[in-house]
Amino acid sequence: FDQNPLASELIDVAVKEGQAIQTQLLDSQNESAPESNIDLSLRINSAIQFAGQTARVMEVVSNLKVFTKYATYPIGEFIVGSSTLPVHASIKKALLPGVFSLLKLCSEQDTAFIQATLDASMQDTFKTVLAEYKKFHKFSGRI
C-alpha cells in the first residue's frame, strides 16, 4: 500500500496515536501516580475523538465516486496498522465505521486485491473486518 491518499494518512496518524496510548497505558500500570492516569485518560479521550473525526472524513469521502479507485488503500493501512501495532480497542472501534463506509465502495476484485497484498496474519484481521461488515453493515436487500 504505497499510495496514501488523505484518508490513509489520517488512519495512520490515528493508529500511531493508539499505539502510543497503548504503550503509555502499559507503562502507567506499573506506576501508581494519579497524575499520569489523568494525563493518559485525556490522551485516550482525545485520540478517540480524533479517530471518530477521521472515520467521519472517510464517510464523507466515501460519498465521492471519484474516490472509489483509492478506497482500498486506507482500508489496507487500517488492517496493517491494527495488525502490527498495539492499538487501544476504543480507537479501533471509532475507526471501524469509516472503514466500513469505504468497504461499500469496494468491489469483489478490490477486496481480493486487499487480501492478496496482505501478509497471512493480516489476512485474518481483514477477513474478520470483512465478515463483520457483511454481517452488520452491508445492505443485502432484506429488512
What structural class should be given to the helix and strand makeup? mainly alpha
Q: Percent of residues in beta strands?
A: under 5%
Percent helix: over 70%
> What are the segments in which pLDDT stays under 50 over at least 5 consecutive residues?
none
* Total strands: 0
Residue-averaged pLDDT:
78
The end-to-end distance, rounded to whole angstroms, is 36 Å
Q: How does the major sheet shape up? A: none
Count of individual helical segments: 6
Q: Provide the gyration radius in Å.
A: 16 Å
- Give the helices and strands as they follow along the chain: HHHHHH
Shape: globular
Structural features, described:
The mean pLDDT is 78. This protein is mainly alpha-helical. Helix 3 (72-84) runs parallel beside helix 5 (108-117). It has helices at 6-30, 34-61, 72-84, 89-103, 108-117, 120-137.
Throw out a few tags for this protein.
143 residues, mainly alpha, globular
